[in-house]
Amino acid sequence: MIVHLIDGTYELFRHFYGLRRFTKGKDRPYGGVVGVLQGVLQMIESGDRYIGVATDHVIESFRNELWPGYKTGAGIERALLAQFHPLEEALAAMGVVVWPMVELEADDALASAAHIATRDRKVEKVAIWSPDKDLAQCVWDTRVVQIDGRRKIIRDALAIREKFGVDPPLIPDLLALVGDVADGYPGIPGIGARTAAQLLNRHGPIENFPADVLGEQRDLALLFKNLATLRTDAKLFKKVETLRWRGPTPAFSDWAKRMEAPRLLERCQKAASQ
Hints:
The chain is of the alpha/beta class and 274 residues long. The protein has helices spanning 8-23, 31-45, 63-66, 78-81, 84-93, 106-117, 157-164, 171-178, 193-203, 211-214, 218-228, 252-258, 262-273, and strands spanning 2-7, 50-56, 97-101, 125-129, 144-148, 153-155.
């Protein structure tokens, strides 16, 4: 059994802006949503039935209270933002398990789902579909891998070390030191990626650093590590069988009409009958 965990918010952004190349800037009301659904359906048609999609129901999370510069929904185009909630509803109508996150982020949901899934011995592999750097911390040997679908790259633990210079458990420490522009925290001045990796490989996590390494920046580094550490305790499901796709719900017929995508309904019904 392979469990596929998908970053729905990332996929929505990707399909929304990808579609613009063909529509000359004229946004379709559900264009991004249809793109995400098509991607998930392709997985289902290829035989993958254990799927969960995490979304940011809102962009802000508990991390905004910890660091004032943390990312917010400011600047997101209205046409894109308007598709956030329809994506969640359309996926659920298609019969796909969705986790809309409010206090936590979609990445926390993916980390939590991977943590729960790996406790089931029947699960051979967990695939996390997202290129986000912070999700590299979830990779475990070859059993939990990270997949960048756009670039068609699969990374196991060895590949994560090759890319970042540290093993997956030290990714939050690495991001704390070098910062994460996408999430809105700057890291520690004067410490680049190479230096950070050398320090972490020499001393281990930031908590183990000698006092003179970070000096007065230690507390700030630990704060950033807290921001970068994904939560794995979200109670999303108890049994992996919950993630099994069993076909579209009756509500998906209306959604297919609303999105002007009747072919999606036909493909769903055909996949469910196989």
